[in-house]
Every structure is written in C-alpha cells, then in structure tokens.
Structure prediction request, 776 residues.
Amino acid sequence: MNLHKTPVMPVGFQCASVNCGLKDKGTDLSLFISDVTANAAAVFTQNQFPGAPVILGREIIKKGKLRGIVVNSKVSNVGTGEQGVENARKMGLALAREFSIDPGEVLMSSTGVIAKPLPIEKIEKGIIGIGKHLSSDPLVGAQGIMTTDSYPKALSLSVGNATLTMVAKGSGMIEPNMATMLVYIFTDADLDSKTLDTCLRTAVDTSFNMLSVDTDTSTSDTCVILANGHKGSVDKTAFSKALDFACIEMTQMLARDGEGATKLLTAEVNNAFSRNEARFMAKALINSPLIKTMAFGADPNIGRILMALGKCFDCHVEPPKIEVSINGTLVYKDQMRVDFDEKKVRLLLSGDRVAISVNLNAGHDMAMAYGCDLTQGYIEENASYYSS
Amino acid sequence: MNLHKTPVMPVGFQCASVNCGLKDKGTDLSLFISDVTANAAAVFTQNQFPGAPVILGREIIKKGKLRGIVVNSKVSNVGTGEQGVENARKMGLALAREFSIDPGEVLMSSTGVIAKPLPIEKIEKGIIGIGKHLSSDPLVGAQGIMTTDSYPKALSLSVGNATLTMVAKGSGMIEPNMATMLVYIFTDADLDSKTLDTCLRTAVDTSFNMLSVDTDTSTSDTCVILANGHKGSVDKTAFSKALDFACIEMTQMLARDGEGATKLLTAEVNNAFSRNEARFMAKALINSPLIKTMAFGADPNIGRILMALGKCFDCHVEPPKIEVSINGTLVYKDQMRVDFDEKKVRLLLSGDRVAISVNLNAGHDMAMAYGCDLTQGYIEENASYYSS
Prediction:
C-alpha cells in the first residue's frame, strides 16, 4: 500500500483554519466539513477526567451521523465543570449557525492546557466567516489543531475509487487507551456507520492504542471517521486493511514527532503466551525511561531490555528461553549477551529508528508498540508548558 | 523520632570498602560484618530477570542467619547465566575465607551494568586483606556500593538501648516491588529472624515499595536486616515503629538523590476506595513524566494532576468529589480550578519538596508515594551509562 505524495481531502470534504486570538501566532481554530451528512464513528479517551468535548462527543456520535468538526488548540476545556460543557455546546452551535447545518451533526474538540476556562467568545467570533477560507488541503486543517507538534500531520491513500484521508496531532500526554490524541479520518467511500465503527476499532487497536510518548493518557483523546459516500461502495476488507495501514503510518508519524523525540522506537514481542501479555510487554519496553534514554544515546545497554521484560511480573517470562535483537542483530540468547559487533550496533542505534525485537518462546502471540526516545527536549517543553 | 547526627555501626558491626579495579576511581567493593552470627531477614526484587546474587540470596536467607555481606558496584552480575551464579558463589566464598566464617552466612550483592560478566578475579583479589580497613562508620561501607548516587547514604537512630543503622544506594532503575535497590540494615538489638522478617516487610511496604525514580524495577533490589543481639531485647512495637520511620527517611533520601533529581516529589492520596487504589494512584502521580517535569519547572499546571488521576482506569475517580492541594494550597475543587495565588504556588513549587495531596472523597484509605522531578540530568546520565 502506498500513501499519496500529497494528501488531499476526499470528494465533498473541505477544511479551514484561522487565528481567533488563542495563540500569539499561527492558526488556533480549525474546521472540517462535508457537503452532505456523512456516516460516522468515533472512539474517545478512557481517562476518568474526560474533557467537556469528549462528554458531549460521546452523545453526538450515537446517531452515527456527522457533517462538521470544529477544533481549537491552546486550551483543552477539561476540568472546567458545567460551564465547560456549556461552552463546548456553544462552539458546536456557532459552527452549525455559520454553515446552516444541524448542530446535532457537529463534533467539537479542544486541545491544550487543562483546567483553564475556554475563551468561548473568541472562538465564536473566529467561526464567523470561516467558510471563506475553505480548502481541500488537509494540512490547512491540521495546522490549527497543533499544540507542541513540530509540523502538521495528514496523509491520504486510495481504496478502490475512493480516497481515505487522515489528519492528526499528538506530541505529548500520549498513551492513548481505546483512542488517541486528535485524529480525524475522512473518506468519500460509501460505508455505513456500523462498518465504520468496526473498522475503526480494529485499526485503532493495533495502531494508536499501541502508541506511547510518555505513558500519560490525555483527557481529550478523540479519533473519528466520516464517510460521505460520494465515490460509491468499496470492498470492506480492502477498506479495513487500508485503514489499518493508514493508522499505523500515522502512529509512527506521531511517535517520531513525540515531544523532544529524535527517533522512532518500536518494540516487537513475538511468541508470547497471550496477545495481552505481548501487548503489555511491548508497551513496557517502549515506555521504559532507561530504554528511551539508551535509544537517544545510541548506547547498546541491552541489560535494560531484560530488566523491562522482567518487571512485567504477571507475564510469562522465562530467562533461559529469551532472545533479543536490536535492528535485526541478535544481542542476547541462552542467558548470555551474544558477542555482537558493538560498533555496528551503536551505528544501528544512531539511525532514526530503533527496533527492539524479543522472542519469548513462550507461545504464539505477538504485538508491536510504537514510541520515541527521551531527550532533553521533552524536559524543556514540559517544564514550563503551562506558562509558555 | 530523631536520627543521630552522625550515623554509626551498631555494637559488633563493622564495614570497609576498597577499590579492586572495577572503577577508575573511588571504592567499588564493600563488606559489612558482625562479630557474631546475627539473626537476619531479607526481601528481594520481583523482577523476572533476577541477578545471580538475588538467586543465591533467596537460598542463603532461608536459614535466617548472616555474619557478612559483600557488595561490588559497576557490574551487576545479571543476565550472566550459570557462570554468573558460580561467580556470585565465589565472591561469598572469598569473604568467608578471609574472615574464617561459614560461607552459608555470607550474602553477596552486585550493582551496575547488566549482562556483562563479573570480573571475579579482581573481586577475589580485592577481598584479600580487606579486614585491615574495618571501620565503624557506615558511610565507609556506603561509599563502595554507589553507582550513580551523588553521595553515600547511611542513617542511625536509637531504639531503647539498641542502635538501628541503615546503609543504602539508589538513584536509577528504581521502582522497587517487594524490596528496593540495595539497603542494608544493622541493629545490636536481640530480635529473632521471624520478628525481623515481619518488621522488615511491614516497613518496606510503606517506604521503599512506594518509591519510584523512573518506573523501572531493578533486577538486583535487595533489602536485608541483621540483628546481632549485643544490646539485648527491645520492645518489638517500638522497634517496628523505628524501622518504619528509618525506612521512610531513607526512601526520601533515595528519592531526592534520584538520577538528575533536584527535588523530592511526594503524592498523598486520601479517602480512597481501597488501600490498593490509593497506592496505585499515588504511584501514578509521582510517575507521571508530565507531573515530574512540572515539578522541575515549578509550573503550576494542575491539570496534569487531574489527568494522572483520570488515567487510573480501574480506580474509583469521581471528578465532582475531588480536591487537590499543592504544598498545602487548595488548587482544585468542585470541578473547577480554585482561584489560587499563582505566584505563591509557583514559589512553593520552587522549593526542594513538591507535595501533592488529593482528597478523593470516595472511601477511607490513604497512601503516600515518593519520587523526584525529571530533569535534563536524568537524560544525560542515562544516554551513555553503558559506555561511561
């Protein structure tokens, strides 16, 4: 499967972004809109302090229909009580008014600092006239939803005659559970909302749910898919496969652009006792600060991989059976460090992807997790995020 | 309870440390010895890749008797197979030979890089004549067991006529489970090994087991207590309380001296649904990289505290009931950020202890966890630990 060189919104979808005064520079308010009502499905954060847009979003998505999505960055509208829910509702209403559409078919998202009131007046004003800026370039919409992301993220690919396009943001407070940061997926294929829901949950399970930048699960994670049908029906299996592929590609983009990250860190756990154990251990590997700093320093300190497997107390870990490879080079086997070429492994670790692979020889299940290295940049970005 | 101004080994205990050639400078080999056989108890790491000394230690401690402890730093003797166990045995034998004591009463520990062979010849040579350096200053023994610790750690206090003295190291790869990094506790009180075991497990449960520097559980965690009886019997309850107090003091010393740390970070969770939930949430708070960087930056980004509570998916977290304080100042209540004096909170966060307190109003259990901030220093120390 190949991504398009230049991402584009599918037929009937457009987006826009403006600055409404939340950020000093750059756009801070985006919208995504379909010219007809689209079938839709969504998954949200499992954090028990969900943001107001997530609380409303869970209700809105029940009908399986959406026309518009409105998103602001800088302030997340989380931990803001009743007033926060009211403000989220106002944000959706403003978009519905601007485009004369059903407010029940507008999803809203907010991302940024938690526990600060949403400046709703600025957002309402910003929405007025936003229709003049509509574009079919998804990167325009991706721009306005960025927080600490270093570049806007969008991708497109083809499924039969139809196009599948994804816009996302990530960067920090990222270990999604049942959903991810903000991901918006658009297709002009004709698919009902139940099929979309099944495909979305399957894809998210092996992609965004296996991503972690910093073990911290956001209060605003939202992943939504819209299908407006303009290009007619597509093969469901082909669509599901394309969606899986696109979600994994986007997961890797989000991991690589994690706060302060300089490289992608992946962990593959093979021949695990169960799928759940494989997933748990793969996550333990990419979340270990000692493995993350080892990846950053390109330091072949393979003992840390053993440590991280061993701290999975409830998993089937039998040291005599375990084999470990780094970027394809076997480094540990038969309870001993393999006498590998350290200079070569150091070189492999210096690249833009560190791939740890573990063979547990304990069963037949596998999992793959996606993360990034831990660097001074993460500390710098997060020591004063609130104030900056 | 008060710590002695200067720690001292209890009557009948002595220690020493020398450089046996593992480190370029400083001592790298320590011993602790009692003039008579002491009653003893120990707890070890639950990591499923235990080091060779832990594998042997579990056997040795079964008799509840110890006379000597020998410890090297720089190489941990973990992930070293059969040869590693053989080398650990040789290390104990060398100490037994030097002091003409029963090798079954010698415990050995190793700490440092994982998956490198133990240089046993250097250690055996180092042990010869080490008896000439015996001292009653526990800081001498503490010196030789340091890895990335910035200073040697020891403390003493009185229980009745007896003295209770603790020597420890910590710093990185620290989220002990059922035990901690390396902690050696000595007393001249007369206590049987079963009582020691009960007291030790109780104390460890609320101290070292509630400590985390970086969520990574070491493969070598060992906590052992020796009582040689020279000062006769003591009140068991008083001893247990003194041990609890000493373990919490040492836990705080280890947290403050976590790799790269500039301050102690504590989290108290009150009125939780259960003790396990309180412990889980307190750990989630001190382990959150976003809270740790916020503590470092003295940035009152209180939303991160809500996020960390909310990501405890299986705990009873009801946003409307939750109150949050930072160093005694209420910052969140009634689903809203309290209008606190931000300058004052920023000043509180700038001190050498950041204390988060949460009232869940969900039950009657509480827990306290101990950690530290996350700084550039942690990255620097761990990006090239193996090579340096």
